[in-house]
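Thought: the user asked what ANKK1 protein looks like in 3D. I have the sequence; next I should run the structure tool and report back without guessing.
Action: structure_tool
Action Input:
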Amino acid sequence: MGNIGFISHQWLGTGHPDPEAKQMRIFQEALKAAKDDSKMKSISPDIVSEINNPSIKPFPTARLFSEPLFFWYDYFSIPQKVEDSCHQLDAINSIPAYVDKCSFFFALVPVLETPSSMALLSPLTWQGRGWCRLEKTARELSHDPSWIMVKSARDLQFVSDALASARAGSGPVGEGAFTVQEDCLKLRPVLMTVLKRKLIRLLKSRDFAGYRALLNQQTTILSGMGPDLEPILEIESSDDQHEDLSATSTFLHRNGFATVRTKDAAGWLPIHYAALVGDPSLVRDLLALEADPNQDTKKAHPNLGFEAGTPPLSIACYFKKNEVVKLLLSVRATFDSRGPIHYPLNAAAAVNNAEAVQMLCEAGCSPLQKNALGHTCIETAASWGLGLEAMEELLRQVRILGALDEIDPTPSLHLAAISWGGAEVVQRLVAMRADVNAQTADEPAKRTLLMRTMYTVVLWQHKFYKVTAASKFLYHARGGTPLMMALVTGNYEFAAALIAAGAQLNPRNARGCCIADLVPKHSAPDFIVEALEGRVEACRRVSELACGWISMAF
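Observation:
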C-alpha cells in the first residue's frame, strides 16, 4: 500500500499519550513543511552523525512522499484495553518486526510541558524512557539503523547510524525509566528477539567484526533486564562443541580468534573484545597468555565507533566494566596519551562513570587531562547529558590537587550547548561561575591541529558546497555565545536554562549575526519565541521543570 513510518514518542498523560494533541500537531506541521516548503528539500544530519561520517549525505524529503505514507503509533497500533491484554502482549512482542518493516523511524522529541504541569518532556527524557530505548534499539539493530529526530515543526535532524545515536545520551533498555516497572519484564523476550535477528544478519552478510561487537556487547545491552537473562552465546552451535575447552579457549573459538594475538578486520584483538564483555576472569586469563594490557586498536571499529589507538582500558571505562578497569590498573595499564580522543578518563567522563573516574585519578591520572581535540574531562562530562556524578567526582579530584583555580567552567558551557547538555548542567556550571554571555574569542574548534584541519574543511564546504548542521555551527561559532550555539544546534532545553540564568539575546557574533538572525521564529518552540519578544517567564518554567523543580501557588 505504500511506506510506513514508525513514530517513537513519550506519553504526556497516564491514560492518553497526547491529551492536547501537542506532539501530534508538531509532527503534522513538520511533515507539511517537509512536503510543501521548497527550502526543506532535505534533512541535514545531526552534528554527531556528520562528525562520525563526514561523507554522509542529507536525507531527501522527497523520499518520505515517494509513495503513500502510513504510520505505526503505539496508541493506535497496540491494543490498549485491559481485556485485550493477550493481544497487547502479542503486539509488544512484535515490535521488532514492526520496526523492521517500517521504511522510516521518527523520534518525536519536542520540549513540552505535561498537561499536569508537573514534568517536562525533551530529547533527554525520551532517551531515558525504557520503552523509547527499546524502540530505538530495535531500529539501530534493524536492516536500516537511521532515524529522524523531530525537535520542532521545522527542526528535523537525520541520525545516520547507531554510532551517532549511541552518543546521544541513551543507555540500556533495562536501565531506562518505566511508569510501570513490571513492563521491563515484558520487554525481555522482545530484546532477545532483536539481538538474535541481528546476530544472524551479521553472520549472513559475513560482517564478522560487527558480529563480534554485538556478541560481546550483550552484557551491556541486557543490563537491568534481570540476573537470570542469559546472553546469546553464539549462533548455531551444538551443545557439546565446547565441553572440553576452557572458558578462554571457548571465548577465542566463539569469536574466531586463533590466538590472543590474532587481529580481526576491524583492527581489534581478543583483549579488546574481552574488555567489552567485562568479565575480569576472562581478561585475567588472556593476560596470563601474554595479551598486552596496553594493546591499542589498529583501526577505527565500524560498529563501535572507537578510533584507532584505543586501549582496552578506555573500552572498559566507556562500557562501565569497572571490575575490568580495576584489574587493568592493577597490572599498570597506561592511562595517558592513549588514542586521539578516547583517553580512559575522557571515556569514563563521557558516560558518567564516576567510579572509573575515581579509580583512574587515584591511580595517578590527572583530572585536568585533555584529549587530542583539546577538551578537558570536565567539558566532556558536561556535554553528554548523562548526569553530573562524573563531573562532581572530577571536581573532587581537582580539589584534592588544590587546582580549582585552573578550571574555567565557561568552555564547558559552550561545549554542552551543542550536544546533549541539559538544564541541570547549566545550573551546575553557573554555580561554578561560568559566564552565560561569554563570546568565544576564537573558533572553539581550532584548539588543536586535528580540529583546525576539520574546521577548515567544513568551513570551505559551508561557503562553496553545502550547508549542514555542523557547517552552520562552525561558520557562526566565532564570537558566539552559549545561547547562540544551543539554538543553532536545536538544544532548546539548554537554551531555556541559559535564558533563565540571564543569557542576553542581543549580542552579535563575528559574522554580525544575532540570535534572531540565526533562529527564525517559525522554527523555534513557543517559549523561545516568547523570549525573543522579551518574555522569559516560559523559559524559567521550562528550566525549573527540567531540573525537577515544581512551583506551586497557594
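Thought: the tool returned a structure. Summarizing for the user.
Final Answer: Structure for ANKK1 protein predicted. The beta strands are 3-9, 42-43, 59-60, 69-73, 104-108, 112-113, 120-121, 147-152, 155-159. The radius of gyration is 24 Å.
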